[in-house]
């Protein structure tokens, strides 16, 4: 983990447990972009999509109490919504097969913005239950159904029936950016996120509280084994509120969940058979938590492992933003010649294409730089460059 930090691919808190005992925990790096405050294990992190586990489990708790069925329709709880709500079930919301679209809001949407969108929505993107379409409108309605059925706010429900019973004493919901004991997220230039309000109901956790959550979930303290396994059931193997899982018959092999929000990134890996739990929380997203988890899993098994390599995409996009295209590409040439043992060149074309696509997003106003990078891709990879780069050059050139 120290080597990963030295390579610039991990700044955060880590907790590893084996057979119910914490065998390693460490806070590595900085708590904010100033680099003056170091991380501590009692700091809370935004865990992104991993927080969706709470609304998924809440629905299963209410199902066990006989207060709802997964086949209930959204219109059963919100008859004021348009006719599409009569076709969307709670199960569709859980499995992301509702057909609810995911439009681009002009700013981060608040609860009122989402309600207004749903109340004026005329049609779904597809017939419910026929296609997987991941977006947070499903999550929003799951939380609102919990409130409608329980008679309390979603945040209060989570605090009373989940956080308190599992002694998740440091966990909080919807923390402000300047809240005490809350890590601040920053990019690879140590510039902190402009952390703006978003739709409500997101849990922030320490590594220890996340471990308590995993223990409580997999020892069936909140919901039964049957309910847990039902919640793992996705559409054609796609993810659910619990992320991803692998089963061998009726046996759960692993539970893995990844989350990201702004420059926060997190991952949860639990292997019931081996009794391994690996939790990674970072406030400097580099899309390496999965490869780091694999390395830690190998260590726990006594197998060979390697420290993951640094992402070209994450570093190149940051340098183009702050140093300009020419300086960034000179850096890229330098690492291509001198630092291939540190940076991941195994899928170089994909990394460059991801960077160009990131720059091409009209909200970022970097079309000219995106065109240059697409042109570089076509020049350097004439045999394997897809039509995508050529098409993007033509499209962006006409904007």
From TrEMBL:
Segments crossing the lipid bilayer: none
Domain Beta-lactamase-related: 8-288
InterPro entries for the chain: AmpC-like, Beta-lactam-related, Beta-lactam/transpept-like
Protein name: Beta-lactamase family protein
Species name: Pseudidiomarina terrestris
Superkingdom classification of source: Bacteria
Pfam families: Beta-lactamase
């Amino acid at each position: 983990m120290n080597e990963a930090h030295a390579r610039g691919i991990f700044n955060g808190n880590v907790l590893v447990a084996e057979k119910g005992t914490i065998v390693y925990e460490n806070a590595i790096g900085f708590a904010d972009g100033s680099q003056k405050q170091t991380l501590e294990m009692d700091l809370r992190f935004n865990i992104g999509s991993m927080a969706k586990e709470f609304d998924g489990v809440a629905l299963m708790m209410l199902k066990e109490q006989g207060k709802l069925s997964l086949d209930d329709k959204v219109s059963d709880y919100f008859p004021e919504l348009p006719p599409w709500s009569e076709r969307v079930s709670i199960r569709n919301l859980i499995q992301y097969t509702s057909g609810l679209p995911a439009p681009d809001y002009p700013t981060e949407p608040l609860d009122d913005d989402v309600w207004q969108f749903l109340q004026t929505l005329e049609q779904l993107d597809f017939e419910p239950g026929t296609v997987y379409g991941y977006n947070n409108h499903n999550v929003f309605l799951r939380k609102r159904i919990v409130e409608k059925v329980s008679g309390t706010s979603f945040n209060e429900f989570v605090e009373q029936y989940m956080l308190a019973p599992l002694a998740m004493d440091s966990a909080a919901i919807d923390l402000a950016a300047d809240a005490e004991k809350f890590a601040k997220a920053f990019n690879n230039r140590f510039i902190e996120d402009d952390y703006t309000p978003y739709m409500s109901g997101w849990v922030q956790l320490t590594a220890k509280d996340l471990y308590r959550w995993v223990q409580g979930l997999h020892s069936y303290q909140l919901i039964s084994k049957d309910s847990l396994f039902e919640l793992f059931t996705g559409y054609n193997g796609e993810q659910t509120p619990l992320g991803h899982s692998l089963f061998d018959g009726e046996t759960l092999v692993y539970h893995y969940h990844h989350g990201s929000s702004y420059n926060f990134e997190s991952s949860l890996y639990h292997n019931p058979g081996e009794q391994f739990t690996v939790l990674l929380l970072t406030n400097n997203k580099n899309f390496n938590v999965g490869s780091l988890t694999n390395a830690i899993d190998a260590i726990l098994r006594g197998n060979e492992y390697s420290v993951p390599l640094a992402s070209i995409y994450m570093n190149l996009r940051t340098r183009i933003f702050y140093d300009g295209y020419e300086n960034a590409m000179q850096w890229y040439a330098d690492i291509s010649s001198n630092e291939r043992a540190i940076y991941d060149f195994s899928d170089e074309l994909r990394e460059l294409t991801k960077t160009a696509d990131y720059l091409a997003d009209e909200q970022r106003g970097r079309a000219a730089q995106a065109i240059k990078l697409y042109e570089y891709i076509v020049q350097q990879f004439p045999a394997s460059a897809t039509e995508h780069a050529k098409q993007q050059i033509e499209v962006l050139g006409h904007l």
